[in-house]
Design brief:
Distance between the termini: 107 Å
Number of helices: 6
Strand content: 15-25%
Strand order of the largest sheet: 3-2-1-4-5
Structural class: alpha/beta
Radius of gyration: 29 Å
CATH architecture of one domain: 2-Layer Sandwich
Helix content: 25-40%
CATH superfamily of one domain: Ribonuclease H-like superfamily/Ribonuclease H
Number of strands: 5
Length: about 180
């Protein structure tokens, strides 16, 4: 009796005839074998996503007296590297006003640079929840600022809001205090 290969005996055809199929135990064929091309495509997609630019805006406001001398600060990061910062003295204002104004400074700067997808992080639960639409804006001074923010947000493709704790917002806090220090003595 002549011995033949199983694939010849059962007339099994492999997808890729150019290369020999990887032998399996007892030389059994692997039906529905693993597609390496699919895996390679997924890995390439992950590598591409790692190279995408991620922009984060952090903002903070400060008021010495509430109301008192106030300042606003904002910082923009591209892939965790600071690319722009801004601070401004606001005069005698409340802390909530300064926080909201800091958001405007940051949004305007992101728009000026040409950023279209932005993650916003701030330590003001009030401002973050108002931007998310969870809380209403009741203060008349803040309503005008929010109107300005809403108009500017239309120029972004995507924007997300995240509350962060104060210790993760040190650079924006520093900028807000620099803004306060710009007050004329």
């Amino acid at each position: 009796m002549k011995q033949t290969k199983l694939e010849d005996f059962f007339n099994i055809k492999y997808k890729n005839k150019k290369t020999n199929p990887t032998p399996t135990p007892n030389n059994t064929p692997t039906y529905g074998s693993f597609d390496n091309n699919n895996l390679i495509n997924k890995i390439s997609t992950i590598q591409l996503n790692d190279k995408l630019k991620k922009y984060v805006l952090r903002f903070d406001g400060a008021s010495k007296g509430n109301p008192g001398k106030s300042g606003a600060g904002a910082v923009l990061y591209e892939n965790d590297i600071e690319i722009s910062c801004i601070s401004e003295y606001l005069g005698i204002r409340t802390n909530n006003y300064a926080e909201c104004y800091a958001m405007i400074l940051g949004i305007d700067e992101a728009f000026r640079i040409g950023i279209k997808n932005l993650e916003v992080e701030g330590d003001s639960m009030l401002i973050i929840n108002q931007l998310k639409g969870k809380w209403c804006v009741k203060n008349k001074d803040l309503k005008n600022l929010y109107s300005s923010i809403r108009n500017q947000l239309k120029s972004f493709n995507t924007i997300t809001y995240t509350h962060i704790y104060r210790d993760n917002n040190k650079r924006a806090d520093e900028l807000a205090n620099i803004g306060v220090s710009k007050a004329k003595m």
